[in-house]
Amino acid sequence: MDETKAAVSEKETVQADAPQPSVPQPYGKDWPKWKLSLLLFWTFFKIGLFTFGGGYAMLPILEREIVDKYHWSSRDELLDIYALSQCTPGVIAVNTATFIGNKVAKFPGALCATIGVVTPSILIISVIAALFQHFAENPYVMHAMAAVRVCVVALIFTTVLRMAKKSLKNWLQYVIAAIAFLVVALFGANPVWVVLGAGLFGFFFMDPDKLNRHRGKGDN
Q1: Tens digit of each residue's pLDDT (9 = 90 or more) over 161-212
Q2: In a domain, 102, yes or no
Q3: Domain that holds residue 89
Q4: What is the pTM of this model?
Q5: Is residue 37 part of a domain?
Q6: 175: in domain
Q7: How many structural domains compose the chain?
Q8: In 3-state terms, what secondary structure has residue 52?
């Protein structure tokens, strides 16, 4: 028995002394806010420029820029921000940019990120509106837009798979996801009320300690 206890104690000591994986530091952490805000503007300008199909289609680009490149957010935090953006009034892409900008550089960051993500749309829509009558019925343009719509479906499907892999960790979460899908797809329920209902259910009936353990495993 004493040998077993000694072996366990030695194993725990070795695990405690083992080097822990380093957590990437947010890019520009020590920069002045004005400089970090300009970087936020440029980052979200690029995201807004190359995003077609709305906020859900932008998630792969957002993950690459915000999570993998600049380390301004974890993937779990990004999913939380998406959920909050869905519940708040306004466009999900704009809300997401505002949340992340505020997290990184407070109000100046939120302002610059928001302006950055909407500027490409304003410029492109202004040009399209001015020329719409000239090329709306052009067969080449119509074929190109049909291909873009197919690509957007693929991007959204990829986003769904990534979010499911990160979020669905036990049978109860699968049940909640299935119910949410059914009430929106079959009964046309407002997504805002579905998200709020799921949040209230999780607040009262789900164990936060288990969720935190799952999140820790997912981030490794």
Answers
A1: 877 777 787 888 888 888 888 988 888 888 888 888 888 888 877 766 555 5
A2: yes
A3: 27-133
A4: 0.63
A5: yes
A6: no
A7: 1
A8: coil
